[in-house]
Amino acid sequence: MITLEGKKYYIHTFGCQMNVRESETAAGILQSLGMQATQTMEDAHVILFNTCCIRDLAERKAWGAIGASRTRKQEDPQTIIGVFGCMMAQEGANQEVKKRFPFVDIVFGTNSLHELKPLLEQARRGMRVRKGQVGDAQEEFALPVFHNSKPSAFVNIIHGCNNFCSYCIVPYVRGREKSRPMTYIVQEVEELVAQGYQEVTLLGQNVNSYGKDTGDASFAELLRRLDQTGMPRIRFMTSHPKDLTEELIDTIADCKSVCKQIHLPVQSGSNAVLKAMNRKYTREHYLHLIERIRYRMPECGITTDFIVGFPSETEADFQQTLDLVRQVRFDTAFMFAFSPRKGTPAARMEGALSAEEKQRRLAELIAVQREITMDVHKSLVGREEMVLIEHTSRRSDKQLTGKDERGRTVNLNGDLSLIGQMVPVRIVRANANSVFAERIG
After folding, report:
1. CB contact at 8 A, 161 and 115
2. pTM of this prediction?
3. Residues near 176 by Cβ (< 8 Å), separated by ≥ 6?
4. What are the helix (H) ranges across 164-296?
5. Left (φ > 0), alpha (ψ -120 to 50) or beta: where does 39 sit?
6. CB–CB of 310/365 below 8 Å?
7. Of the candidates 392, 337, 329, 396, which has an alpha carbon nearest to the alpha carbon of residue 363?
8. Are 85 and 19 in contact (CB under 8 A)?
9. What are the pLDDT digits (tens) for 117-169?
10. How confident is residue 2, by pLDDT bands cut at 50, 70 and 90?
């Protein structure tokens, strides 16, 4: 048996919401061993790094953090240090860790958290184990989870990805799509309702593919079932445009608890670039989806992702992206310059743009979207909304921050006792990244 009861653990998470949720699963396993969380590496007996390889910056941050744990290992050689996640599922990652950080005790890849207990046991016996493969996601479905994020929680519904966008490393490091059984998902959401959670976000690389691998319930059917659980708010991400059906749009419109917000990554406004990206839809199809969403849900918040400077992207291609942004008028967008990922087809493509040109285009895109976001926020002044208060503002502990149904950030003055509650507000001021409101009622 592992004798870690009463000891402390520290988990450092990099990357997306999926990684956050998987760190909560790791925490659930450690909690089941009688361990307690700590906020610093300095007094931890188990230190885990959950890594991301979607972009070069995320990798560099992870390597730096892993290196910083050397001091703790030197202070207490009994400290167990582990590294897991997407970076560790890449070819050669094990050798890189062994070369740069020989003090690391355990390494394991994605879909392998079910192996955490035996790996810790081996580390306690003085063994160093490095397993970087992509595991079987089915083993993850029923693992314990330590949710510590009231009033909102992440719930995994599908693992992996079958799309193979030419720029994306995810299918290689997370494996093929595997849908989590609906019974597990419904049970978890019902437990969160009982614990007083006000919102869940359903997670997957492509939530729209839910159920396709099993032939069982579709994503639309899952949403309709979860709408009956009593969870006040249900969100989801991320949707792939090629799999967004009219049935799903109608379901979102009809369900009372499903937020009228859709994150729908478009990546480019150019059909030539979309084809090179292997996105499997056209600009015209994407605009048709936007039209359908707004027909059924005029107040729906629509957000997106963009990659600029893709190999061989011409100035005309880029201008089509800007045109699409102006036409759709997204609430907001996550925008990035193309960063080649080793092992993907895009990393081998000809026509690479200079760093300077990519940054020029990114800056121009950000400026256009920022102006649109500001206009959207100004149009909200005077409106009344229900806001779920999540935490104090970064600017002041006397100011609260939450989100409305469309996912917009709302700041207001108020007492800490409001955190975790749904609060009626009136929007009184627009800012570039958020709006300011006053409480009413």
Report:
1. no
2. 0.94
3. 160, 161, 162, 213
4. 170-174, 182-194, 219-226, 246-254, 271-277, 283-296
5. alpha
6. no
7. 337
8. yes
9. 999 999 998 888 888 778 888 888 889 999 988 899 999 999 999 999 999 99
10. low
